[in-house]
């Protein structure tokens, strides 16, 4: 997912810019057409009206704070009557309670960013029993019924980080600070990174920190690892929203935070695309990040829940907004939004969502 901090279990792609979705209104084109074989969901009541509940995983990460800010704006632009967002505060059990509470309030659609890929099934089952369609954002459920998963390709996150580090570092030790492996996001990023390194850069040795999307865990384990391995040459942070600050603070406390180009600089690649990462790239503190599209997550979460409430269906294939709908195991459909690698060369690109928020 996009990140979580202290005690927060976060389950956190070229930014999808402003795009016209009118072409998909009738859903008859191959890119976004409906079929009876490739059904995303049922439960729609026809006109797309009714209240929509929006459930957040946490609000302690700058990424999710930005997503939260985008939700009401995108709901308005997509004509969705969204209730005030609900924060599950990094607790998967609380998230199931939040879903149940929203259903009891009579919502006719739900947009949920799951904390736990397996645990969310209980909430999805509740929604299905009540005929309420659900769109999952950022994290794909392992089972349960959803109208669409709106998510970037998290395997590509790990691969992009691997390729960048591998091209900057010829040999030596690199660390990946991993997310929660209870989340498909954490698993995808971790396995993709280690597989890519093993295949393409065999002279790199990967050391791993399981940090559960928790900033305090990342800080303490990185401190211990650096004590035993002061010759670290690279770091891959799977979520800048929660790992950026503790990583930089830990390196600084040990006198290991050197600017890019300086002797002893540790090459650092992150995920999220938050303004704080962009500032760190400009300062030379980190080298790159993969921009996870908070704006597009909100936009297409609203777009797909309205479509689901209207009973519309989708099938795999390219979309009109520079992404592709793919079929996941179990028949779930996922709109894989683009997530670009951001470096000093393109960090000031005004199209990146991280450059549009304060």
What does this structure look like?
About 11% of the residues have low confidence. This protein starts with 50 loop residues before the first strand and ends in a 16-residue tail after the last strand. Helix content is 35%, strand content 18%. The protein contains nine helices and 15 strands. The strands form two sheets. Strands 1, 2, 3, 4, 5, 6, 12, 13 and 14 form a nine-stranded mixed beta sheet that branches. The protein has a six-stranded mixed beta sheet with strand order 8-7-9-10-11-15, sandwiched between helices.
Sheet-strand content, in percent, reads 15-25%
Structural class: alpha/beta
Poorly predicted spans: 4-43
> What is the rounded distance between the termini?
22 Å
The major β-sheet equals: 9 strands, mixed
As a whole number of angstroms, the C-alpha radius of gyration is 20 Å
* H-E string: EHEEHEHEEHEHEHEHEHEHEEEE
- Please tally the helical runs, counting DSSP H or I stretches of 4 or more residues: 9
Helix content: 25-40%
Q: What global shape is seen?
A: elongated
Q: Kindly state the mean pLDDT as a whole number? A: 89
In total, how many beta strands?
A: 15
């Amino acid at each position: 997912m996009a990140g979580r901090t202290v005690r927060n279990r976060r389950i956190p792609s070229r930014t999808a810019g402003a795009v016209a979705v009118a072409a998909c209104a009738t859903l008859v084109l191959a890119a976004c057409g409906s079929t009876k074989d490739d059904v995303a969901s049922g439960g729609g009541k026809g006109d797309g009206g009714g209240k929509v509940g929006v459930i957040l995983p946490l609000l302690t990460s700058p990424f999710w704070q930005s997503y939260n800010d985008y939700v009401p704006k995108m709901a308005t632009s997509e004509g969705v009557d969204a209730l005030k967002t609900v924060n599950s505060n990094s607790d998967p059990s609380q998230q199931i309670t939040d879903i149940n509470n929203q259903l009891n309030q009579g919502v006719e659609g739900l947009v949920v960013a799951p904390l736990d890929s397996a645990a969310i099934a209980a909430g999805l089952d509740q929604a299905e029993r009540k005929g309420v369609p659900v769109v999952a954002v950022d994290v794909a459920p392992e089972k349960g019924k959803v109208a669409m998963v709106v998510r970037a390709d998290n395997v590509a996150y790990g691969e992009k980080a691997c390729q960048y580090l591998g091209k900057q570092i010829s040999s030596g030790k690199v660390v990946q600070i991993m997310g929660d492996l209870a989340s498909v996001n954490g698993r995808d990023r971790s396995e993709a990174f280690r597989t890519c390194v093993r295949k393409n850069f065999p002279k790199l040795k990967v050391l791993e920190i399981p940090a559960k999307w928790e900033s305090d865990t990342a800080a303490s384990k990185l401190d211990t690892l650096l004590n035993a391995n002061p010759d670290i040459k690279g770091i891959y942070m799977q979520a800048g929203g929660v790992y950026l600050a503790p990583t930089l603070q830990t390196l600084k406390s040990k006198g290991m935070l050197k600017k890019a180009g300086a002797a002893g600089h540790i090459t650092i690649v992150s995920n999220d695309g938050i303004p704080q990462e962009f500032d760190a790239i400009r300062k030379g503190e980190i080298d790159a990040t993969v921009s996870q599209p908070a704006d597009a997550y909100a936009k297409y979460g609203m777009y797909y829940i309205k479509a689901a409430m209207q009973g519309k269906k989708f099938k795999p294939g390219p979309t009109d907004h520079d992404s592709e709908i793919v079929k996941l195991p179990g028949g779930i459909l996922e709109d894989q939004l683009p997530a670009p690698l951001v470096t000093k060369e393109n960090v000031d690109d005004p199209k990146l969502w991280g450059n549009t928020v304060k």
